[in-house]
């Protein structure tokens, strides 16, 4: 009896309010939803985030003015294309902690981490050539457009740099969004649209043609910033749960993905006054929180990576602009945390520590070209560009991945015309361990 009472006391202490909180994305006990596929419980925990997002929330699929019906689909088993070679050509470990963000522009790769340093890498040799430092830590999102670098930090603010090439590569700090003075005046005046995000920023997106920067947050909103004056011109209350990813198409259409298991589509109407962005349709992701988004370069296919490992995709009509559900890609066993696309390649990074490279064939089917294995932690961010380090004649791409294991890797993926020309898969040219 004494042993039984002791065991009960131990169990009670585990359930007490003083016990440590569950990791990020933990399933709430109050929700009892029937899943088509079980959601992984091994998603990463961003221990330093001031806000711990819920892992799953009861979906509200039909609360918006327009909602798409629940799609029916049969996931297809994908095999690796035998005529594809892939290998890790560089692997770098710094003492920066978890790699949380990555962006690529004009032969430069920017990586953000738990630390207050954004590292700059020059391609094709993948050599560090500079750093951007601030007093604030944790770079959770990065975007590079033309000569400007935008970085979202753990303090819910965005820093902006201008890149110059006057004899040597230089970055000049321009501003912090929102500006401190504007934030205080807005708070006193009670203007909600000018207040900074109330939760950590999760993603950034840029619409160059309309001079707009978008930022999404765990506070369930998307803020619209005018790039020319760095002022917030609109706050979109986009979802009922935290927003994990945003992407904007060339035609100005904005896509937002959330823990409420939906992707929402927004169009901008310049004649609508203070709230020009209007919801046009809500896409269902089969009751699974949507963690990542990407569009094909042409903007005709939208991909949404979910916490159950599936990647759903929708086709965009050429004339109507409506989105039609296409199916789901099956392969990952854990949450799809980040995606990128270049040409006809789609790259997905997952909490299962693997990165998959997909392509859409001429017959409309998707093929998994490669599974990149090497990271020892969840892959948090990816970027990709065409060619293989200057060998543009080859049909392939180069991929950079950042993981919560603190390692940045660069991969070379090539589709060979002759399978006998393939190089050893999963090989690594060199590993660079740096302090």
From TrEMBL:
<feature type="region of interest" description="Disordered">
    <location>
        <begin position="1"/>
        <end position="24"/>
    </location>
</feature>
<keyword id="KW-0853">WD repeat</keyword>
<feature type="repeat" description="WD">
    <location>
        <begin position="194"/>
        <end position="235"/>
    </location>
</feature>
<dbReference type="InterPro" id="IPR001680">
    <property type="entry name" value="WD40_rpt"/>
</dbReference>
<keyword id="KW-0677">Repeat</keyword>
<dbReference type="InterPro" id="IPR020472">
    <property type="entry name" value="WD40_PAC1"/>
</dbReference>
<dbReference type="InterPro" id="IPR036322">
    <property type="entry name" value="WD40_repeat_dom_sf"/>
</dbReference>
<feature type="repeat" description="WD">
    <location>
        <begin position="329"/>
        <end position="358"/>
    </location>
</feature>
<protein>
    <submittedName>
        <fullName>WD40 domain-containing protein</fullName>
    </submittedName>
</protein>
<dbReference type="Pfam" id="PF00400">
    <property type="entry name" value="WD40"/>
</dbReference>
<feature type="repeat" description="WD">
    <location>
        <begin position="283"/>
        <end position="314"/>
    </location>
</feature>
<dbReference type="InterPro" id="IPR015943">
    <property type="entry name" value="WD40/YVTN_repeat-like_dom_sf"/>
</dbReference>
<dbReference type="InterPro" id="IPR045182">
    <property type="entry name" value="JINGUBANG-like"/>
</dbReference>
<feature type="repeat" description="WD">
    <location>
        <begin position="236"/>
        <end position="266"/>
    </location>
</feature>
<feature type="compositionally biased region" description="Basic and acidic residues">
    <location>
        <begin position="1"/>
        <end position="10"/>
    </location>
</feature>
């Amino acid at each position: 009896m004494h042993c039984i009472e002791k065991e009960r006391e131990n169990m009670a202490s585990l359930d007490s309010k003083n016990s440590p909180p569950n990791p990020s994305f933990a399933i709430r006990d109050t929700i009892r939803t029937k899943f088509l596929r079980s959601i992984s419980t091994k998603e990463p925990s961003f221990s330093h985030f001031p806000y711990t997002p819920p892992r799953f929330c009861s979906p509200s699929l039909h609360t918006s003015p327009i909602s798409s019906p629940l799609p029916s689909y049969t996931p297809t088993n994908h095999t690796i294309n035998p005529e594809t070679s892939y290998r890790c050509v560089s692997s770098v470990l710094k003492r920066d902690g978890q790699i949380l963000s990555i962006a690529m522009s004009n032969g430069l790769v920017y990586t953000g981490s738990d630390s207050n340093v954004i590292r700059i890498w020059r391609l094709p040799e993948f050599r560090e050539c500079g750093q951007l430092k601030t007093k604030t830590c944790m770079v959770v999102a990065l975007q590079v457009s033309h000569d400007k670098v935008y970085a979202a930090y753990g303090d819910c603010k965005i820093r902006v740099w201008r890149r110059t090439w006057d004899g040597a590569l230089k970055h000049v700090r321009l501003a912090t969004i929102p500006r401190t003075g504007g934030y205080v005046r807005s708070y006193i005046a009670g203007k909600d649209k000018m207040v900074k995000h109330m939760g950590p920023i999760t993603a950034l997106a840029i619409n160059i043609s309309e001079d707009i920067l978008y930022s999404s947050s765990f506070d369930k909103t998307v803020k619209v910033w005018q790039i020319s004056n760095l002022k917030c011109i609109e706050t979109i209350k986009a979802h009922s749960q935290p927003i994990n990813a945003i992407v904007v198409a060339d035609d100005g259409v904005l896509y937002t993905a959330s823990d409420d298991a939906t992707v929402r589509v927004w169009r901008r109407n310049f004649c609508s006054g203070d709230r020009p962005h209007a919801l046009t349709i809500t896409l269902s992701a089969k009751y699974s929180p949507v963690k990542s988004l990407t569009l094909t370069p042409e903007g005709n296919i939208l991909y949404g990576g979910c916490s159950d490992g599936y990647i759903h995709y929708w086709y965009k009509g050429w004339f109507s602009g409506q989105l039609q559900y296409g199916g789901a890609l099956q392969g990952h066993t854990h949450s799809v945390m980040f995606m990128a696309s270049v040409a006809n390649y789609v790259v997905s990074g997952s909490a299962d520590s693997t990165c998959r490279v997909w392509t859409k064939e001429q017959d409309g089917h998707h093929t998994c070209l490669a599974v990149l294995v090497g990271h020892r932690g969840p892959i948090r961010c990816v970027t990709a560009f065409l060619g293989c380090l200057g060998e543009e004649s080859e049909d392939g791409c180069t991929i950079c991945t950042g993981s919560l294991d603190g390692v940045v890797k660069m991969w070379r993926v090539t589709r060979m015309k002759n399978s006998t020309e393939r190089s050893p898969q999963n090989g690594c040219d060199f590993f660079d361990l740096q302090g």
